[in-house]
Fold this sequence. Notes:
This is Deoxyribodipyrimidine photo-lyase. This protein has 485 residues and is an alpha/beta fold. It has three domains: 3-137, HUPs (Rossmann fold); 138-172 and 212-296, Serine Threonine Protein Phosphatase 5, Tetratricopeptide repeat, CATH 1.25.40.80; 307-484, DNA Cyclobutane Dipyrimidine Photolyase, subunit A, domain 3 (Orthogonal Bundle), CATH 1.10.579. The protein is built from 19 helices and seven strands. A five-stranded parallel β-sheet has the order 3-2-1-4-5, sandwiched between helices. A two-stranded parallel sheet has the order 6-7. Helix 4 links the parallel strand 4 and strand 5. Helix 12 (333-345) crosses helix 13 (350-363) and helix 13 (350-363) packs across helix 15 (384-395). The longest helix has 19 residues, at 48-66. It is globular. The termini are far apart.
Amino acid sequence: MTTAIVWFRRDLRLADNPALVAATQGYDRVIPLYIHAPHEEGEWAPGAASRWWLHHSLASLDTGLKHHRGALQVVAASTSAPADGGGSLGALRAAIKATGATAVYFNLLYDPLIRKRDEKVRKALEADGLDVASFNASLWCNPWETSTKEGEPYRVFTPFWRNLRTRIDEQGPLDTPAPLHLGTVPKSDDLDSLALLPTLDWAKGFDEWTPGEEGAQEMLSLFADDAVGHYDTGRDLPARHGTSRLSPHLHFGEISPRQVADRLRAHFARRKNAPDLEPYLRQLGWREFGHHLLWHFPDTPKKNFNKKFDAFRWAKRDAHALRRWKQGKTGIPIVDAGMRELWATGWMHNRVRMLVASLLTKNLRQHWVLGEKWFWDTLVDADLANNAMGWQWVAGSGADASPYFRIFNPVTQSEKFDAEGAYIRRWVPELRDAPGRLVHAPWEDAAFLKRSGYPSPIVDLKSSREDALTAYQKARGAPAGATRE
């Protein structure tokens, strides 16, 4: 009987899993193996919110495998060097020795440290005489498969999307392979032994999420039945569920872009008044663009993509201001609502993500890396490619970025996208009874502000905007215009 190990990572599903399909087709028995080795990811090991999701996603995958008379094999890798039997390579070699496997199949990840680790593992196992194969399970196209006419990586989204858009319509998902003949590893660890679940109280508020393949499909069904029909406008309104909320499911590979697009097309195939799916597919394209950038420019999680920003003078790190920002106590209602939503649910509406990032990097002039790291620890959808791209986009230092002089005005933004203040009232109870415009700018009535117990603004929006523009002009060496939203 021939045996292959399928090395699960962030592809925690059975359907549309190319590594699992290929292993099943080529070998008599498949061993589904998850190796826990966060030390191999350096400073970008999963944050607290991601670990919570990972625990439940692994449990869900194990449940799915039990329906096929098997179970997920879990191994906690030793932190010792691979040469001493440690790390992912050591864990794989031990599993190979124990099971007699002659192949290791896995789906690709694109984070810089993981790429280097995987290449070393591949070379070592091939030198051991094993059949090693890797597949694309998380993107429409591998990052190196899309380039400009000159063969260069894209730096602007729109031409990237035009290229990618021509490639995706014919990509259908793979079915769950059946039958699955599953094997075991003699010394598999217990999932609880990985100690992924945090002890912080905020994890109790995550009950609105259902990690796992089944939860991803349920979330997609909800989106198809309602929000996708008005996605182009509804996605900007934080008080309603106008987005797909699939980002954590996509990050952990519980669902793929191929599955999402295929399911939406099938859902509306016979309807006369089917909604336009392009605005949503385009957002999935932005996710793909983030991975394209990370592959070609692996320093982007820590360094400015636009090197001209290396001359920009950020303000001195302000621990007090940073703490108020993290706690949702800046005195800017829409920002505080977003930061409190993040703490309570591990997620934040995308429009609000831009506003909280703009306040931190422009009005407070704190370096974007500080915000990036906080999001990394608190988001259930923390994704290295898209987290870095998003923060650099707002800060003005990234690819196809919002110009630095485009400074979001949080008051006009909340008046536009949360006109009745429903989102603010939900997450900032001090302002639940605020009349009219005061829900957006409570400092305009000093008596009300005092009664509410809500803090005064951490910064004057107008003067801090001017200070940011001055700093930007000095860095650029030339006057810069300004826009205001």
